Amino acid sequence: MANAGGRREKKPPFDKLVQPRDHFLRLMQELDTTARVVGKSRREIAAAVHTSPATLAKYFRGDREMPNSVLVDICNELGMPKALARKIAAAVLPGLVPDETGSWPPRFAPGDIALLESISGPAYFAKNPEGRIMATNKSFKEYFPWMPVPSEGNPVDMPVQLFTNPGARESFGDSWELIAGRSAMWLMIFCPAVVPAERMAEIFDLCRRNPEFEKMMSVMPTEAEFSDIVLSVKCPDGVRREHAVKSLGQDWPDPAAWSLHTMTCLEP
Questions:
Q1: Do 143 and 235 meet the contact criterion of CB atoms below 8 Å apart?
Q2: What is the dihedral of CA 193, 98, 220, 166, to 10 degrees?
Q3: Given this model, what pLDDT does residue 263 score?
Q4: CA–CA separation, 255 vs 148, rounded Å?
């Protein structure tokens, strides 16, 4: 596409979506199976969404793309809970739909905290996508003693800490730009979809105290930059070692669910 000056605009360097049809076909199969389980015939479903049984069959086979309005009507007809809406959207647009996890005050199931403490490296539960810390394990506290303790009146967001707390630079050293940049990308792309505007404004205002935040916000990421990363982290003994960072979400979008973030040391 050419701009007003006649120059061609450079497209953002996003990776191409690989085989999105497979995700859509799986969704169609799941909807068809759900209809049979709840005792709804295809004729009944077709009548409910104001289409013909033949057209509905084409949707389920993937011969014709199902309009979003029909998809919503089918989900309503099958009595699917609204909690599944994000999972359905993620099947249509895989990798582009963020989940909102966690709650405050945190509500942990039996064994959640024990699981957190069983992890040898730094680990924490977070409310995503804004990265609000809900609980940390003993190892995390030893690695990052500068991290404030979260409370209802004092939210502790990982992006804010990375950009404003001097301890972050000390802990991550040369890896700081990598983890901070990844955090800025996440705020820019995923948070506006689910985080209230007032909360987003508060997080952005805090992060902007660091002039590097705006620069990182202007960079368009590739999908690969959201995958697991390796950072050089200062350990409690003062030695910097490489750590693999992983984020593990829950499949079921329960409002009380959390995301688990871990750092595993790769060196002796």
A1: yes
A2: 90
A3: 96
A4: 25
